[in-house]
Amino acid sequence: MIATALIPLGFLAVFFVWPVAAIVHRGLSAGGVAAVLGRADTWELVGFTLGQAAASTAVALLAGMPVAFVTARVRLPWIGLLRVLVLVPFVLPTIVVGLAFRTLIPDGGVVAIVLANAFFNVAVVARTVGGLWTHLDRRAEDAARSLGASRLTAFRTVTLPALAPAVGSAAAVVFLFSATSFGVVLVLGAAEYRTLETEIYLRTVELFDLPGAAALSLLQIVAVLAALVAGAVARRRRESALRLRAKEETARRPVGPEWTVVALALAIVGLLMTPIVAMVLRSLSTSDGWGLAGYRALAGTGDRGVLAVSGVDAALNSLRTATDATALALVLGLTASVVLVSLRRGRHRAALVEAVDTALMLPLGVSAVTVGFGYLITLDALPGDLRTSPLLVPLAQALVITPLIIRIMVPVLSSIDTRLRQAAATLGAGPVRVWREVDLPLAARSLLSAAAFGYVVALGEFGATSFLARPDAPTLPVAIGALISRPGELNNQMAYAACTLLMVVTVAVVLLVERLRAPAANLGEF
Which chain regions cross the lipid bilayer (predicted)? Predict the structure, then answer.
């Protein structure tokens, strides 16, 4: 089993550890870090990055808690649809979210950035907190109420402390995503507001300041890893809390003031849909009225040939790249999941299992922009110089989505009754046949769900892809970024039309994921 673990760990070593280590080395060499740390504008960047991430986290928590309550504790016919609508913003490409909010707030700015990041992450709060809330025993809260506590007091003194591990886990993940947000800040911040993520991109692509970019990447890695450690601690506390409570049916029809929370949750979901609707309407709006000019223009290269290929070709590139990335990530993620579950079932030390699990999750804790930058300065050493290979983008995208697939599959594989596997082995089936005849049929729906979810994330990946995509083979998010960076009504119409098409594909995949999703595979618990 340890030998099998070398497959995903080897991929991680070559395509993650090596590039990131090269970034760290470059940032430490030649006094790069000291020079960057000595500049006042560096600390302004750090302050704005952490400040907007903290504000986004607070807004996401405030908006996500009522939704978490409704999805966990309320039994109404349309709750399934509500879960789908809440998940849609999270899997939208960041460049799409940025453009959607630019439709509502054309001037962008801090408020737009915070709201967009919160919009993107409400699903994390709703799914993570709701996942624990579903398991909480109502009897403790009812006992507090019978002793005279108001509903608010009972929630504050009984329910909220019990939910604290999930709230902490959600807050750490939202902070992590907001601190490394790229497309949102790039679109809404313009040149006035920059984070460490966008500054690394600027210094690499436009200023060619590689030592400065490496030093900023090192600062970002330190900050992000701190958030990742906090999230891991909170996640372990949440898992411990879940183990202490038997799963039982806690959802019921709302009573009394609970209807107010339901109404608030519906209002929040309505607000989440507002930027999406505004973007669709903007894609149909032209100077001559309503029309499909932007969609028709996708057959061309934009005003004054902004794109090297047509929008249709960029979309096809996205589909091919996402397919390759998903296929690779499924192989790596499924192998890693089997290894982790086998280690947990065996007599291996808990420290070893935790170390392997943490190593496989590391790509979630480091910016995709940093990884893409690392590829540019390392992969020329491999045979064939992968920096110019069309395989580079799928490799980077697979690195991003493999941890998500692992997070979905490990709980499902862990829940398979070991007695079924032992019975098959007793009848003479070897390990491979046990996997094929027992594990795979039981996990098939979740595997399809993981593949669909990984595919849509790869389809909209923008951070690393913006570094690595060749000019003659851009993906659709990269083409959108190029279109909105150039003036002209046609370019804007094409950008909004392309965003709408990406969103439609995303919604279709989310519906498929929800249809296939097994109860144990909570997509919000990354």
Answer: 46-72, 84-105, 111-136, 157-190, 210-234, 255-281, 325-343, 355-379, 391-413, 446-469, 494-513
